[in-house]
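Listing 4. Sequential folding, example run.
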Amino acid sequence: MYSIKEIYYTLQGEGFHTGRPAIFVRFSGCNLWSGREEDRHKAICKFCDTDFWGTDGIEGGKYEAQELVDKIKSLWPLESKDIFAVFTGGEPALQMDQSLINVLKEENIETAIETNGTLDLPDKIDWICVSPKANTTIKIKTGNELKLVFPQQGLVPQDFEHLNFEHFYLQPMDSLEQEENTFKVQEFCLLHPKWKMSLQTHKILGIK
């Protein structure tokens, strides 16, 4: 059984697939923070802005693999068969396994994962986006997209440039200093053109 916080149809808001329709499947749980505000001060990642605690969100609950895939299919517009599903969290690698991937493949669903990169992944995921966090050890060093929230104390973008990713993104940290952070990302990308800016357009548009 998979513990799911929420499942919903929206537009991808950030990174390479910005603007692309997708079913978002948010797993409960993370290995860098419990998800409870009272624990944030002792979390490895203290800036997380996502609610992944519990299973009480939209379409949240406990699912078996086929049940989860059937739910994904039910939320996709009927006129299109090219289903794109983004698995996120929390940390989806805590639960996402080969059994689920195999069912998704049988149903011809294109799969993407947004992970912190600290845990191993099953095979045959179509799109791997790794978002490194400070004070962690990255195990996933090959993928499609590396998306770094910037700035993070103790984390330097150049330290990741040797990794085998197709795209490198910097995303301004959403905080009280967001305007300043956005300027820092802009300046860094101009000086280091290997990197591209990613904005959280879903927040700008006011969508989920």
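-- end of first protein; second protein begins --
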Amino acid sequence: MLGYISYFILVPMVYIAFVTLIVGLVYKFYVIFRAPAPAGTGAIFPKRGSKVLGLIYDAMAVPNVYNKQKVFWFIIMVFHIAFFFLFLGHLELVDEFSFIQVIPHKIFLGGGVVGVILIITTLYFLFRRFGTPYREISIPEDFVILLVLFFCILFGSILHLAERYSDWGAVLRVDVNDYREWLQSMILLKPQLSYKITELSHYTILVLHVLFANIFLMMFPFSKMIHSVFTFLAHYRKRK
């Protein structure tokens, strides 16, 4: 029974999660572009700098947050930079990309620091919502998705740190090519889950990591985190 459940999480549920993510994003874009244009202008005056460069600066550097809450701005920047490196690490699990190996490293880049940073910053975002005035404007979904993200990162970090630093690393280790075989088979819609993955002692942690990742992907389009997708559109509106 547990074998069927774990297989469902690692194969069918991954497809379900990505389909839900894509359909949810398409739906959100449809709702926004079908909505009537708001009256007036959303521009912030005075308008400074190039429209394109200013748009990139506003979206990437979030100066409005910096001017009001410098500590929060620092946490946001650290979180997003770490998340970018996490994305690159997972990209390397799919295939080799020479541009990522400009700085030679074992997968993942950072040797576990990226995961630790994401755990700390995610906990900061979570506990921040318990304080005023954020508690009053939060809904249960805001806490749930942060918890889901936290456990996803936690179990992923346990996999990585145990393999890299534990005395049992050799036992826990899965060759990157085994991960690539599984992930590439998923992309080609011909899923193959190797026994080299399923019969190792880390398997339960991997299943939990993927489970929370699936849940996060399915929740993402319908949560407040969707702002990360529409940030450039929002800042474009302000500079229009």
